[in-house]
Amino acid sequence: MTNKDIKKSANASALHGTGANRSKKQLDKKSLTTFNNNENISEKQAAKFQQLELAGMPEIKTHGYFDNFKIPTYLKAVANSIPLGLANARTVDTLAKPLHLQPRTFSAYTHILTAKYHLPLATITVGDNKGNYILIDDNELAAFVAQAQARIDHSNERMHGVIAGYNLYQKAIQALANSQRRAS
């Protein structure tokens, strides 16, 4: 069996719950709201969100687009620090520093803002403008979706390659594992 034998088309992936549909299911399993801001989250995640709140987050000059949204203040500061439009995209390091956040924490907050609160925050890693930004038109959305789909396709290709390799070499792997157990 080769990788070519197990690849699926994008349409087949969508029908069988992989790719973007699979991501939605994973978020649903974690009780993150994916379609309705009023939907409850699990107690464990609610506690996690509360732990992430920062006391004394510095006041910084922001655009304030999200000031009227019903989101926690610490997340509002993060959302309002992200520039409008791909042409103004900034790296996580650049955005996290004025908020006195670690880049990983900033990324976790942007994940919460998109997964739970559905803010149109995007990240792009190719082209002239790399970093986080607020989507402002269909072209920017298309660029983000194309990159996200490419990542999904790459991950699926690798996953199918690992599965095919395991199935192809399973007997040899088991023989090697058995010989190592006997040697121990």
Provide a descriptive summary of the structure in words.
A two-stranded antiparallel ribbon has the order 1-2. The chain contains 8 helices and 2 strands. With 184 residues, it is mainly α. The two termini are 33 Å apart. It has 2 domains: 1-30 and 137-184, no CATH class; 48-136, Arc Repressor Mutant, subunit A (Orthogonal Bundle), CATH 1.10.10. The chain has helices at 3-6, 10-15, 19-29, 43-52, 73-81, 92-96, 103-115, 138-183, and strands at 121-124, 131-134. Residues 1-29 are annotated as: Disordered.
Structure keywords:
184 residues, mainly alpha, Arc Repressor Mutant, subunit A, two-stranded antiparallel sheet
Question: What amount of the residues lies in strands?
Answer: under 5%
Count of DSSP E strands? 2
- SSE topology string: HHHHHHHEEH
CATH second-level architecture of the largest domain: Orthogonal Bundle
Secondary structure class reads mainly alpha
